[in-house]
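Ticket #4471: complex job returned nothing on first submit. Input attached below:
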Amino acid sequence: MKKYVIIGNSAAGIGAVEGIRRIDAKGEITVITNEPYHTYSRPLISYLLLGKVTEEKMKYRADSFYDEHGCKLVHETAALIDSAAKQVILSKGSRIPYDKLLAATGSLAVIPPFEGLGTVKDKTTFMSLDDAKKLDKMLGADKHVLIVGAGLIGLKCAEGIIKKAARITVLDIASGILPNILDDGGAKLVLRYLKSKGIVFALNAKIKRFDGNNAVLESEDKINFDILVLASGVRPNTALLDKIADIKRGILINERSETSAPDIYAAGDCAEALDVSSGKSRVMALLPNAYMQGECAGINMAGGDKIFDKAIPMNAVGFFGLHIVTAGSYDGEVYEEGTDGTDGDKTGEVRYKRLFYKDNALNGYILIGDVEKAGIYTSLIRERTPLDTIDFPLICEKPGLMAFTQNERSAKLGGINT
Amino acid sequence: MCEYYCAFAGTNGKDMARALKDCDIKPRINIEEADGISFAVSCRHCREPLCVKGCITGALGMDGTVITIDKDRCVGCYTCITLCPYGAISASGDGAVQKCELCVSTSEGIPACVRGCPNGAIVYEERA
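Support reply: We reran it on our side without changes. The output follows.
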């Protein structure tokens, strides 16, 4: 009987369990997690603070998941991998042997080495359920929260706690927000929207040092706060495979989720794979890719033959009811339309659309407000559909299957290849 | 008509005209039309469903071969809308998303759109 060991209990790890069980009903599966919880959906921590979900509803799979999939959940930290002996060594010293191993170790918060950070009493990162619980305890109606980092994590945190704090300031060294997912125009629009919801921004602001409850900026301005949230970035958690497998920014994997080391796979935020929208190797730290890379790893670990070669960066996120959907890379010519909600009869309606295309293929898009049928654009990117085979002007205006040829439509809708 | 039958199937009402009167209907099947061509699009219940794999909460799942949505667990992040290559998942208006579930819980074995299509253009059958 094969022995599978999975380090990580989030989307990639769960995907691997489901992948393994599609092929091998009997093999022994051990899932190792350094958290004391059932598998939960990490992006939901901001929804928990917002009160939109309960801890119970954050569970990524049913209570019966581990039993039903015949796997053992070990709540301990994986300290070391002995790849020669094919064993994972846990923090308390015990060893778990494996035939096939998956590293689904996620990402870690990057904390810049700010001077005086140690003098700040109430501070946290915002990555895990424990972080969310810790923050929740610190919050109060009279508290001023300073969030360092205007990316997805920082801004989702801001949305989550807006009713639980007196004031929220989001600080970033950059001049715009959400630099990883928006272009300048989109970022300005979302910034204005977030300000209208009461979030205060300090952009182009560089922190010189912390002094207790004060952040001292390069400009010598001071921001007084009660609680500090550190959300300036994440990096792949690759340490366990250091000197065992090839690592660039993340653990390098191929389209079978294999690392360069025999019998060791990697998936999710800790891994780096080919982004088909740019042709470059990238860490794509987002949940759907994590699941799909994990599932692919699981199937291959169990002796199946699975290729996942359609990874692209992709984000679906909402702030106070405003939906933002983006995918791919923003390279090439631009199709644009939209309104920023300030002009004439469209006041209040925010709609922003940018499609990026080059060399007969759609490379990326940004949609804010109206995101209906966005998956049709995503599919054009993932499948590298030649744009001269569809009615591109029509699909730019409105995503739909109408833009495809009749044969293509019959295949898509009838399951018949004509 | 299929759009109306679909919207009606979700209401548990007896009379379609009354149930949908003055409603802005939100059907889970949609007609695309242009230049004399029209066709209906609803969930294809993919064998390898990107929406289920990408769902951040586990709200989308498979019940046999039918892809279902547990609205209680959906937070309306729209990751599935970002992934569905058919544009077959949409906002429901109550925060969660909606999609065709083949009337498994509302109708007598045959989806309402199939029963209601006057031209027999929508069929319900197994395809390999």
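Chain A touches chain B through 47 residues (CB under 8 Å). Closing as resolved unless it happens again.
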